[in-house]
Amino acid sequence: MKKKILVTGGLGFIGSHTVVCLHEAGFEPIIIDNLSNSQMSAMGGIKSLIGFEPTFVNANVNDTEVLSQLIIDHKPEAIIHFAAFKAVGESVEKPLMYYENNVVGLISVLEVMKAQGISNLVFSSSCTVYGEPDQVPVLETTPTKPAQSPYGATKQMGEIILKDNASWCKTQCLRYFNPIGAHPTAALGELPLGIPNNLIPYLTQTVAGLRNELTVFGNDYDTPDGTCIRDYIHVMDLAEAHVKAVERLVQNKQEENFELFNIGTGNGFSVLEVIQSFEKENNIQVPHKIGPRRAGDVVKVWADTTKVNNVLGWTAKRGLDEMMRDSWNWQLKLQKN
Ligand code: WQD
């Protein structure tokens, strides 16, 4: 009998890739997703990769009756909680929507877990919690800074809530850096909803002719080429990290009930370096110009991955060029549909 893992937001960008990796690792993923930031086409992608559609319930995690029944029916060994909004700019415009969905949503999941005797959780956190770090690379012990957006605040609150429930809830708290790329078969990828806020979808849509030009938000920062530096991580590497975290939980290998990991590559690349990598890897130009800085942007942040390498036994395997190749292949696939 396969161990079942409940994946909230399992049709989303990271969730869908993780569902595939969970299956390949011998687990049975169960999906709950309200399709507020995902599409049923992701289910088609999952099916094309694993041969069937996993159990799926179209619901909001705040619907605790539905969530309870799903847990009663399937008795999952662990829950991976992806379901949350993640656009920094949107969170500034709609803070209540972000607190309702991201914080109340987590509380709903925890209340149902407690009532149903489920004690294993993997939580999606973000490098956003570090704000503008005083030093890079950031360690898990690097102090967090006051959130610069409601989105960042919801991630910091989530971590606090989970620490305060560590007496009964065993958590693998994963601080993602910048998830990009797509499944190498282009069966799954980041689905564009509206004008992309993030660099890679905007870049690939520009190259595809859907946007006029990519604006590089500032080249007068204190970095080698003046543009901001980030730790871009392939979504497949990120998905595989989640499998490692689930395995650590179900095999009861945690040394403490709340464990925190930076999930990055340990390498920082500037916006211009990303553009150069894309152009070289795909042999195509990225129409771009230098524009003004974007408010709230962190200048440079990338991960120290010593802890996740040694404790979780996970290391990112895919480099920037591969991320650029898979991102472009996904965009080409989207154009065909
Ligand atoms: C990356 C770099 C921009 C668009 C956010 C969240 C983070 C995570 C990833 C969820 C920056 C520059 C961007 C453009 C540009 N989300 N850029 N032109 O802001 O690092 O992180 O998304 O986990 O939590 O905060 O990602 O892709 O928006 O920006 O020059 O059109 O690309 O200035 O330097 P960010 P991003």
* Strand fraction: 15-25%
CATH class category of the domain at 4-182 and 233-264: Alpha Beta
Given the structure, what is the number of helices? 11
- Distinct small molecules: UDP-4-deoxy-4-formamido-beta-L-arabinopyranose
Radius of gyration: 19 Å
Which segments are poorly predicted (pLDDT under 50) over 5 or more consecutive residues? none
Shape: globular
Mean pLDDT: 97
Order of helices and strands: EHEHEHEHHEHEEHEEEHEEHEHH
Strand arrangement across the biggest beta sheet: 3-2-1-4-5-6-11
Q: Tell me which CATH architecture of the domain at 4-182 and 233-264 applies here.
A: 3-Layer(aba) Sandwich
Strand elements, count:
13
Looking at the structure, the CATH topology of the domain at 4-182 and 233-264 is Rossmann fold
- What does the largest sheet look like? 7 strands, parallel
| End-to-end gap | 37 Å
CATH H-level superfamily title of the domain at 4-182 and 233-264: NAD(P)-binding Rossmann-like Domain
Helix-residue proportion: 40-55%
Structural class by secondary-structure content = alpha/beta
Oligomer: single chain
What this model shows, in words?
- By secondary structure, the protein is α/β, with parallel strands linked by helices.
- It has a domain at 4-182 and 233-264: Rossmann fold (3-Layer(aba) Sandwich).
- It contains eleven helices and 13 strands.
- Strands 3-2-1-4-5-6-11 form a seven-stranded parallel sheet, with helices on both faces. A two-stranded parallel sheet has the order 7-10.
- Helix 5 (95-116) runs parallel beside helix 6 and helix 9 (271-282) crosses helix 11 (320-336).
- The protein is globular.
- It starts with a strand and ends with a helix.
- 47% of the residues are buried.
- Bound molecules: UDP-4-deoxy-4-formamido-beta-L-arabinopyranose (WQD).
- Residues 86, 88, 126, 128, 176, 178, 197-199, 202, 214-217, 228, 230, 271, 294, 297 line the site of UDP-4-deoxy-4-formamido-beta-L-arabinopyranose.
